[in-house]
Amino acid sequence: MDVCIKIIKNNKDFFDQSLDEIKLLKYVNKHDPADKYHLLRLYDYFYYREHLLIVCELLKANLYEFHKFNRESGGEVYFTMPRLQSITIQCLESLQFLHGLGLIHCDLKPENILVKSYSRCEIKVIDLGSSCFETDHLCSYVQSRSYRAPEVILGLPYDKKIDVWSLGCILAELCTGNVLFQNDSPIKSFMWKVVSGGIPVADKMVARGLKVDTRCQRCGNEGESSNHVLFSCTVARQIWALFNFPCPENGFDSQSLYQNMYYLLLVSKNPKVQVETRKAFPWILWQIWKNRNLFCIEGKSFSLPVTISKIRENVQEWIHAQALNEVTAEKMCKNGFMLKL
Ligand SMILES: [Zn+2]
After folding, report:
1. Of 2, 154, 173, 213, which residue is least crowded by CB atoms under 10 Å?
2. Same domain (yes/no): 212, 161
3. CA dihedral over 270, 271, 276, 282, signed as positive or negative
């Protein structure tokens, strides 16, 4: 019998995550003795020379690799409508089974669907490494970006329906050959989260019924809101000041995120302020948030000068990209492409 042996990196985080995955695979395999629900079979696992080794069934390429190969090789199109229908049915059966056990897959994407047989168009769903029970305290960072459901992006409570969203994105991609929601702009989705109050600060976690320390981990301030982290916390104030961003006369509003965002938008449109400065606010907010996470999650501190230079770099890159886009658009106009569109 052919098998696949996965050697887990000798690192505590990988080890713990793999143990969780083994537990889940054993659990789902036990409930599917006849192997009817298109989920990876785990055969064995053992510890050897300080490495965890997982033995499972041997499968073929994943749908991302295979789709790419199929398109680029110029051969006969594999993903025809009847095959897509068959893949859809298998994925839905798999999800129905997982959901029936109270599990959410949490990372369904073309890389996690593997071909079992090309000729019979059989697939298997893999990677339960991020999966969780619906009754668990749910983590806010789940799913890969292009397949992430709106409720996850917004930091709202979610359930098994997020897997169905991902499946929809996957099918659209296999059908058209284009990723439905390109993840080209993490800054855009971050700003969207900020204005919709979706970044997972302590106040939000408490509102969702999670037991967390309600104080700001950085300054000890009671109640960690998005507005506090991004505008009022000591570190945030230092970053705004060091960047020489034209702050309001009496400082940012300590209560209203919307007031502050409105102010930033006004500055960004003010031609009297240098473009590198007035357009910088999304990256300033992004770096403040990244630094907050680095501190809260990994307990690491960061250097303010490095942060400031990172922000400047990001803004420069963005301005450069905008200029390139304008040139391309102009060329397209001249060549009459715009008229055709
Ligand atoms: Zn603080």
Report:
1. 2
2. no
3. positive
Structure tokens, 263: 């102010």
Q: Please give the distance, rounded to the nearest whole angstrom, from the Cα atom of residue 223 to the centre of ligand 1.
A: 9
Q: 288: CA distance to ligand 1 center in Å? A: 11
Q: Which of 107, 127, 163, 203 is catalytic?
A: 107
Same domain, 272 and 307: yes
Structural domain of 32: 3-57
Q: What are the tokens at 238?
A: 């230092």
Q: Is residue 337 part of a domain?
A: no
Query: What spacing in Å lies between the alpha carbon of 155 and ligand 1's midpoint?
Result: 21
107 is known as an active-site residue: yes
Residues of the chain with pLDDT under 70: 137, 183-184, 324-341
Pick the closest to residue 144 from 176, 104, 111, 172 (CA basis): 111
Residue 319 alpha carbon to ligand 1 centre in Å: 31
Write out pLDDT tens, residues 8-42. Answer: 988 888 888 899 999 999 999 999 999 999 999 99
- Quick one: 234 and 324 in the same domain? yes
Whole-number pLDDT of residue 193 = 83
